[in-house]
Amino acid sequence: MDKKYKVKVNDSLEFEFSEEEIAALDTQKTSEKNYHLLKDNRSFSAEIFKPDFLNRNYEIKINSNIYSVKINNELDQLIDEMGLSLGSSQQINDIKAPMPGLILEVNVKEGDEVKEGDYLLVLEAMKMENTLTAPRDGVVKSVTVAKSDTVEKNELLIEME
Prior knowledge:
Elements: E1 4-9, E2 13-18, H1 19-24, E3 26-29, E4 34-39, E5 42-52, E6 57-62, E7 65-72, H2 74-81, E8 94-96, E9 101-106, E10 113-114, E11 119-125, E12 128-133, E13 138-143, E14 150-151, E15 156-160
Antiparallel strand pairs: 1-2, 1-7, 3-4, 4-5, 5-6, 6-7, 8-15, 9-11, 9-14, 10-13, 11-12, 13-15
């Protein structure tokens, strides 16, 4: 399967390239930061400056025009699709059962203030105790389960506000 890369230019234009398309480019390194490219019989001079290899952000000068470029590989794309990007402001309000099981303990009630990491409840599944913790600071809006309740996967357990 061919790997795909998404390239975002100047935070506005997005392109997708396969490894095969990248390999088909005729590139020649002319110095440490300079390249000569041929694409569809057109010639381009490129200079890479301000490279951030860790985050795959680059400023590239092509034929006297400067572009800000961000390259996302397949893992970056998957993380974005899952809403787990760094700086993501997605807020979790519903605590759901990660698996079917039995509620052994409920440590909070409606109106309780909780801090990120506080123990909310204990769920027994496959003879193992799983402690569910608060994903963020907040207030418990409702608790939909009680001790000894049997729950199914993805069943709502606690709602936060």
